[in-house]
Every structure is written in C-alpha cells, then in structure tokens.
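Deviations from the work plan: none for this task. Representative record:
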Amino acid sequence: MMQNELVLNDVDKAILRLMQDDARITNVAISKKLKMAPSAVLERVRKLEERGVIKGYTANINPSALNKELLAFIFIKSADGFGCDTSARAFAAIPEVQEVHNIAGDDCYLVKVRVANTQALMELRRKKFSKIANILSMRTTIVMETVKETQTISIT
Amino acid sequence: MMQNELVLNDVDKAILRLMQDDARITNVAISKKLKMAPSAVLERVRKLEERGVIKGYTANINPSALNKELLAFIFIKSADGFGCDTSARAFAAIPEVQEVHNIAGDDCYLVKVRVANTQALMELRRKKFSKIANILSMRTTIVMETVKETQTISIT
DNA sequence: GTGTAATAAGAATATTATTCTGCTATGTAT
DNA sequence: ATACATAGCAGAATAATATTCTTATTACAC
C-alpha cells in the first residue's frame, strides 16, 4: 500500500525549509545539514517535485532594478456568474498582474499589479483592463511602502 | 568610470528571465541558451547578486501540502504616526504574515496572511494581532480562490 | 598612443549531480 | 512464522557542473 501522497515527514519538511530559504542550495549542502547521503536527498527532492509539493523555483528580483517600483491592488467587481472565471483568466494573462484572487464578500476580484509608475498604472487600466468584458467597477489602492513581501510558508 | 550600478543590459535581462522562471537552472544551461562561456555567466550572476538585483532564490511550495489553504487579506488601521512603522514591523515578524504594505488613502496597512483554516485565522487574530499596540481596527477579507499568484516581474 | 576597467573565452581543477547496486526496515499476505 | 514486496537510504562510480585563473579583447578616458 501507499498512502503517502500527501504526508510529509520531518526530512521532507527540513528539505522544504532549506529550499524555501535558498532554492539554489546544493544537494550536497542539504545532505550535510541533514546528515544524509546526497543520493537520498536527491530522491526526496525529486519526489517532492513529482508530487507537486514543490511547484517550482524562482529568483527574487529587486523590482527597482527593473524599474517596477509601483505596487497596487485593484478591487474589481465583475458580472461573471458563479463558477465562471472568464475575467479572472483575462486578468491573469496580463504580465503586470502578479496575483488574482476571488474574494468573498463583494462578488469581486482582488488583483495585485506591479508597474513602473502611476502613469504606467493608468495605461495598464486603459489599455488592458478596459478591454476585459464583464467589469462593472474598479477601485485602485496604491502601496506607499512595502515592509514585507514573501511567499514563504511557515513549515512546522 | 562606472555607472552601471543600476543598469541592466540585454544579457543581464536574459539571465534574470531564465532564473526567474527556474532558479535552479545550471550555469551551463544558461550559457548554452545565451551562447556564452559558463564562466562569463557565473560572473554576471554573481554581480547581479552582489548588486542586490537578485535578492534570493525561493522554492514555491504548494500551500495545501503544508495544510495552509486559507489565504486572507487584513486591512488594519493603526495609530502609528507618520514615518513610524512600529506596528508594521510587528506584523512582519509573524510567520503566517506573507506581506505587509503601507497603503495610501486610509492611513492603514494591508496584510496578507496564510493559515490552515478559519479557526487558525481567528487564533492568529486573537493571539498575535491583538497583542500589537496601536491597532485601531481590523477588517478581514477571505480569499475563496486564487487564480494567479506569483512574484514574477515582466522583464522587457 | 597609453593606461585602465569591464567583459568574456578557454582550460584546468574542485565540487556536485546522478545513477546504480545493495542493504535494511516495514508491512502484508499466505 | 515465513516469504515477498516496497520504501528509503547509503556507498561507490561516473557524468556533469561550478569555480578559479589566465589571457584576450574592447571601450573609453586621458
């Protein structure tokens, strides 16, 4: 039998902690920290990838280096029916859109976007969002300062 | 002279694109795609790291594998004075908090949290947030479905 | 021209990744 | 209890990669 599809043991968690902290850590480094053989670590990492526990690896780039210093959240009311995420997919297809969430309470979406400046934000709204059907209203909130921004999940 | 502190050329951008897409890509693989020597790529990657263009590398972990399936945004009004981010730092120190933004318009914070379920969210509010001084009010918005969630920046 | 700095290639070496084999523990069916 | 299958890990051998160092080239300032 196998029922370990969803179960992570302590070794898995330790690996995830290390790779979440530094995705470019070597297998050898992991194996030393965990006092295991590199081959055993490799096997576990592969299984974590195969099982979809690890979805991928990303480099975190400084937004200002790419002249993308303006972060904003846009609340969008849409005429999409229940279970229909047509406009959500359209939002997601825009490169400047980092996140699209269907939020409770107001039958609307919360969209996180990152652009160069307020002018670019205006252009994004006019040229990209305005083309998307079903949008009833948009409310934009601009971020003045970001104190913390990670995707890190606390592994206990 | 050197004024390249902030300037990225096409090679840099190509490297960033590749590493943003897959942070565990090898130097050799990058060098083949870019038709360069591995040593040259390595030198550029190191400089990107040193200059802070690349802030780090992260493994993207499936939240449901870690039983963190509830995402929520909390809008917090605080009595912090201007330029004072005492409570923001307190928010950032909480492991379940993934993002803390100082947003315009309502002298308040937008905090993104990831927890197991609604019960855990309640506990987080009671045990962690309620201890933080200066909080005037909190409004929580629960995410029902996430259509897109990345930190990826479009590199043009 | 001359010097300097940045950039990249190439070769040599160190380190790591990967594969494969075998061992052990665990659980299951007979 | 015995036999069998499976998961997990270690160890060794080999393939691949990372890293260092040297050299060449270019661009640019003086």
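Residues 10-50 of chain B form a domain with the Arc Repressor Mutant, subunit A fold (CATH 1.10.10.10).
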